[in-house]
Design a protein that fits this description.
two-stranded antiparallel sheet, binds 5,6-dihydroxy-NADP, 11% strand, binds zinc ion, alpha/beta, single chain
Length: 391
């Protein structure tokens, strides 16, 4: 087993009805004046926003709320919220929603606590040195932002989507009530399951020989979320399915499934370029790219792909090279069962060579970086992967 540091300080409050405990959770975390953030309206329609603010009232807390966060959350709104609420005495931020609301909250927290423009922290111009304490009531199981150290924001003026990783991004608590996800449209359920799988796969395909327990946890999580994903698509109000998916979502991205080795995350980087240019849902940006990436890097270690396929997809082929190919097509077949696109053509349409070049240049930041560790990829590799996905 390799050396590692594991830090996952977020208190998890899990189960049916837990949304009504938001007030007590904020109070226990020391908050007194709470800014509640939410998205485009699903939290209002489902009634969860009202339940949460009622519980803040019962706990005797002052609160205000701001909605309107969009999927692939935008810098402009985060900056506007930070500017509006600076120096107003807010001492706790609470997200009611998905990764987009959580990441907006994290961006606002950086700017309120450290001062200065939000984008400075995402561009790398400044380091995050403090945070306003944060919590969440999640309404979709997907991004894992509720326990992750990550925040991802789109700068619409620059046409780029960037992440910022820091332990200051880790919320104090996550309220995880699986019943809140019953109202998800099938497309969002499918995107969430895909993202959860991808957070696990992007850690599994790394420089990671000999981390047997970590591998076994990742394999079990993949089997579990795939089964539960199919059940949730058939039965949206299956508590069994929704609760499994929700817990997989957090464990897939709090680093448990990748202890002891670096994350690869090439597919996320390739996908972020698609989301920045075409505003596609995050999960779809990943399912469109994973197969093309996997076929490109597979020769690096076919046995790793083959072993995963045997453990997760019941691949019986004994030859590693052939089994690796079956593993890749097996995951793609699963995403198609969920209705997810597995090529650019199925998602955003077949693109011109010029567009693919712009995507590759964006992903490598004009040739200034490689991404990934399983097989680091440069601009030419990225272009080859976008070309392979362009069908
Ligand atoms: O805006 P509303 O009306 O709330 O609708 C949302 C949104 O349209 C809807 N939704 C959420 N809960 C619902 C619901 N609809 C009905 N019933 C409910 N219970 O779902 C749509 C998607 O919401 P969003 O928050 O965008 O989803 P997700 O959690 O997938 O977040 C995606 C964002 O997170 C980033 C992605 O890049 C993307 O920007 N990520 C964040 C990460 C992190 N911070 O650790 C890691 C991930 O890899 C990812 O990059
Ligand atoms: Zn993701």
């Amino acid at each position: 087993m390799n050396s590692f540091t594991f830090y996952s300080p977020t208190k998890v409050i899990f189960g049916a009805g837990t949304a009504d405990r938001a007030g007590e959770a904020v109070r226990a975390a020391g908050g007194s004046y709470v800014l509640v953030l939410y998205g485009g309206g699903s939290a209002v329609r489902s009634g969860v926003l009202g339940r949460v603010t009622d519980s803040l009232e019962r706990a005797g807390l002052r609160w205000a709320s701001v909605g309107g966060v969009q999927p692939n959350p935008r810098l402009a709104l985060a900056q506007q919220i930070a500017d509006e609420w600076r120096d107003k005495g807010i001492d706790f931020l609470l997200a009611v929603g998905g990764g987009s609301v959580l990441d907006t909250m994290k961006a606002v927290s950086m700017s309120l606590a450290c001062g200065g423009p939000v984008w400075d922290f995402f561009s790398g111009a400044r380091e995050v040195t403090a945070a306003v304490p944060m919590g969440s009531v999640i309404t979709i199981a997907a991004a894992g932002s509720e326990t992750s150290d990550s925040a991802v924001l789109t700068n619409e003026a620059l046409g780029t989507k960037r992440g910022k990783n820091t332990d200051f991004n880790r919320p104090r608590f996550a309220i995880m009530d699986p019943e809140l996800t019953y109202t998800l449209p099938p497309r969002q359920t499918a995107c969430g399951v895909t993202d959860i799988m991808m957070h696990t796969l992007e850690r599994y395909f790394s420089d990671c020989e000999g981390d047997y327990l970590t591998d076994a946890i990742a394999e079990a999580l993949l089997r579990d979320v795939m089964d539960a994903g199919l059940l949730a698509m058939r039965e949206p109000e299956s508590y069994a399915a929704r609760s499994e998916i929700m817990w997989c979502g957090s464990l897939s991205h709090n680093d448990l499934t990748g202890l002891g080795h670096p994350k690869d995350f090439s597919v996320h980087q390739l996908g972020h370029e698609l989301s920045a240019m075409f505003d596609v849902p995050h999960g779809e940006s990943l399912s469109m790219m994973w197969g093309a990436w996997a076929r490109f890097v597979c020769a690096q270690n076919p046995a790793r792909f083959a072993g995963l396929g045997r453990k997760v997809l019941a691949v019986t082929e004994r030859d590693d090279e052939a089994a690796a190919q079956l593993t890749i097509s097996g995951f793609e077949a699963y995403w198609q069962r969920l209705g997810m696109p597995v090529s650019l053509g199925q998602g955003i349409g077949v693109q011109s060579e010029e567009t693919l070049r712009r995507l590759a240049e964006g992903c490598s930041r004009q040739g200034s970086r490689k991404v990934g560790v399983f097989r680091p990829i440069d601009t030419a590799d990225m272009l080859a992967i976008y070309q392979a996905a362009n069908r």
